[in-house]
Design brief:
The protein has about 375 residues and is α/β, with parallel strands linked by helices. The chain has 12 helices and 4 strands, in the order ββαβαβαααααααααα. Strands 1-2-3-4 form a 4-stranded mixed β-sheet, covered by helices on one side.
Length: about 375
């Protein structure tokens, strides 16, 4: 393709730049190099495009840049002979590439006042974004209940496998060790009173009510919450989230909802496995070191644990799952540019998730105390 050409003429109306040829990325290379030698002018300027029938975004950017270089005083350069196609491309490029900001007066710093103001502004901005995110998530969950067909079930099932089946190993191991530790701690005290059999009561009740759900939630927060934040954070750094917004897709329903639903579905199952492994760990200590028969240990555990205790664990499971998934996805959406931003959002997701899990646990403990 023949290269485009740029010529300058001086007339009564001022300096005129005439551009001829089809303006594309391939044909405007020489003109771009020539622009570096153009100095800003203060006299009236114009660009004649009557010999340029069409252009792409690179050609439109060339025209816009040339106009800014020719208008030294900030006045808009006149365009002559612009075709409809070129005008449409210029409208797109000129809107998406605004001129660089002018150098303003030097700002006066007020030290501590500025610091406090910026901190307060950041807190309010984050609070507004969090409230908006919670509202969007609530609407998405409501839509999932009323219109299940709108949920991306294929991705949801994939996340269920990642947060559920893939986490069974670490959850079972830590819960079993927690049961062993708790049984040893209780046995050292109860042996003094000849009440070894009550180790089964304490281990079973503590695991089912409190330690099983809490330990599982902490593991999931470190494992799945961080993964959610890293995945969405990487997508945001790569501008995939911006692409979803440009296509008119709801980022919360597209990215967040499958993860939240998957964790809500799998957390109760993880906690059931955690409870069983914790009780088995305590039974291992009771049978091996305390010489308790297996039948006695099982009978004592079943007689002490009620359905209400199990129901408490399931309520905690759903509350913890919602907190962990929501916080992990929120931190991912708040990721700043660069690999360092992804790392920061992942760390924040784990810390915030564990903190909110403990706060939720404390609130539920008070509620269950008065309810039960």
């Amino acid at each position: 393709m023949e290269a485009a050409r740029l010529e300058f003429e001086s007339g009564s109306a001022g300096r005129v730049a005439r551009i001829s040829g089809v303006l594309t990325l391939a044909t405007t290379a020489d003109i771009w190099r020539e622009l570096e030698r153009i100095e800003s002018q203060s006299s009236p300027q114009s660009i004649d495009l009557s010999a340029a029938p069409s252009c792409d975004t690179a050609g439109a950017a060339l025209v816009v840049d040339l106009g800014r270089r020719m208008s030294g005083d900030g006045a808009k350069t006149d365009l002559v002979g612009v075709s409809d196609q070129v005008a449409a491309m210029l409208a797109i490029v000129d809107r998406t590439c605004p001129p660089p900001p002018e150098q303003g007066p030097e700002e006066v710093s007020f030290g501590m006042v500025d610091t406090v103001g910026e901190f307060a502004e950041g807190v309010l901005r984050n609070a507004y974004a969090t409230v908006e995110y919670v509202g969007d998530l609530a609407l998405g969950l409501a839509a999932a209940v009323t219109r299940p067909a709108t949920v991306r079930w294929r991705d949801t099932v994939s996340y269920m496998s990642r947060v559920g089946a893939d986490a069974l190993g670490i959850v079972s191991l830590i819960s079993a060790l927690m049961g062993v530790i708790l049984a040893f701690q209780m046995a050292s005290q109860l042996q003094q009173y000849g009440a070894d059999v009550y180790v089964a009561d304490i281990v079973g009740l503590s695991i089912v009510r409190e330690l099983g759900p809490l330990m599982t939630a902490i593991i999931v927060a470190g494992r799945s919450g961080s993964a959610f934040a890293a995945e969405i954070g990487t997508m945001k750094v790569n501008e995939e989230v911006a692409a979803l917004d440009a296509m008119g897709l709801d980022r919360v329903r597209f990215l967040v909802l499958p993860k939240v639903i998957a964790l809500l579905a799998m957390m109760p199952i993880l906690i059931v496995f955690s409870d069983l492994c914790g009780i088995l760990g305590g039974m291992l200590v009771g049978v091996t070191f305390l010489d308790l028969p297996v039948s006695i240990y099982v009978e004592q555990t079943i007689s002490r644990i009620t359905l209400w205790d199990v129901f408490q664990g399931m309520i905690r499971a759903e509350c913890y799952a919602l907190v962990i998934a929501a916080v992990g996805c929120l931190r991912g959406l708040q990721t700043r540019d660069g690999a360092q931003g992804v790392g920061a959002s992942t760390t924040s997701a784990v810390v915030s998730g564990i903190l909110l899990v403990i706060v939720t646990n404390a609130v539920l403990a008070v509620v269950f105390y008065y309810v039960g």
